[in-house]
Amino acid sequence: MVFIGESRFDMNKMISKTGSAIVTVTVFLFAIFLLINFSMGGYFVCLILPIGFIMMTAGLNNECEGDRKVAANIGLILAAVYGTFIMLVYFSQLTTVNNEQLNEQASKLLEFNKFGLIFNYDLLGYGVMALSTFFTGLSMKHKNRIDKWLRALMMIHGVFYFSCTFMPITGMFVRMSSGGNGVGGRLALVAWCVYFLPIGILSLLHFHFRKDDKL
Q: Which of 23, 32, 100, 212 is the one with CA 20 to 30 A from 14?
């Protein structure tokens, strides 16, 4: 029961909005750090991004109607898998790689810019993230233009799963590591930020204008 004059606090909505805000801010900062080539700043915000993404995805999962709950649950589980991979990748860059003297073999495996094992794990993580957005978008029923665009962008983002998963298998990134300054790779990541930033903004608007009594 809510008494007259008593404010109604919805923790679900607050957490979902906060997660969307974290996604929006971290993706924006990631793009800036890519442009100015500040790798440690990029690693730090990428360590925070998965937390916001899981919060945002959980909010959309909570709203899902029963006949689409399987897709929503798959999206949330994949968000957690993505978060695990990515937080391990960037925590290793900020700690072990940044603070310790690595031998040549360890450097090839662990340094992100060597396009080795840790880089491949990063791509796998973002491939899983793409699948997460696809299933989460699939679970949504749009009721307005904000939801329509959000659902479309999330589902189209699922296409990134294929490039993130299968391009490392071809060995193209190993060949890239033999030369070049990585400008092309940074610009590709900036392009991804430009695509994904509206997802964070639209999610924030979605939760802000959500009417709880119609869920």
A: 32
